[in-house]
């Protein structure tokens, strides 16, 4: 929980949005890929309203998790040790994952962010962070590096995700942070990192967003995040084959004063796509009744407030669009109203957390 709340705060500082997507370095055989880019000028992250929203959210998080009060100190510690400014609107990420027949995941993340390689190396050496090698590129044990940055991050590092190891198999390599240059970091296990770094150097073909997906992404206005799924690169199974599912693309963008979301799924035929479209539309139609709940049972004021917020979020979802073998869900929310809804949801959650019985300490 501590790691999740810490990463949530740091992500709030970095925020995701993008204008265009740089997939160079992302292996083409990944089943799921994602990317973001610069957030400069976006209302959702690079505006006075967004900055005020972030400040209020940090204050609320601090009320839920005492360690969250140190978020600014953590950001400053990261900047002092690495030169990386988490709040820069020019930070971008790209990456993805693949899955083998046994369900084991592998993948990596490319962080395109200005930092000081010399400062990072000096810090890691001084803190005696374990080193790793991805080919000729030096890196450091990710968990140890995180723990070396601050006392609070050291506590969060205890929850650092460990690579899965199948029963009876030898221990897998730790996740590392590899410093390619002052603008590029690769986060992955050494073997996968070496593959990503080779692609970044132009040795092989990287993933590229298929031209057929571009219209869906661009329809969000100024797209700032994209995730794509290629079913052909997932482990084969009868259910997946029978569904006719070929892939999907998720995109978020900003159009005027609105945030626009599009989720499109593609199937082998119209006949395979139609049932999903009908089911999805039916669920949307039933949502208001489900939110209303059982009229014979009383609801708390908090529950009523939360249901009202969820209702406002659902109101932004447009009717499901089915066209040939494609099914698309589109949603649109006013940016400032979206800030308000998210803030209310977190405030309600914070109130519940405070009123919940506290664990007994010895």
What is the element string, with H for helices and E for strands? HEHHEEHEEHHEEHHEHEEHHEEH
How confident overall, as mean pLDDT? 86
Radius of gyration: 22 Å
- Helical/strand content category: alpha+beta
Number of helices, counting only DSSP H or I runs of 4 residues or more: 12
How large a portion of the residues is in β-strands, by DSSP E?
Answer: 15-25%
Concise description?
41% of the residues lie in helices and 23% in strands.
Write up what this structure looks like.
The protein has helices at 2-14, 48-64, 71-82, 117-126, 142-149, 151-157, 190-200, 214-218, 238-243, 270-292, 301-315, 335-355; strands at 32-36, 92-99, 105-112, 131-134, 137-141, 176-181, 184-188, 222-230, 245-255, 258-267, 321-323, 326-334. It is of the alpha+beta class. It has a twelve-stranded antiparallel beta sheet. Helix 1 (2-14) packs across helix 6, helix 2 (48-64) runs parallel beside helix 12 (335-355) and helix 10 packs antiparallel against helix 11. It has twelve helices and twelve strands. Strand 2 (92-99) and strand 3 form a beta hairpin. It is 41% helix and 23% strand. The radius of gyration is 22 Å and the shape is globular.
Features:
disordered N terminus; alpha+beta; 12 strands; 362 residues; twelve-stranded antiparallel beta sheet; 12 helices
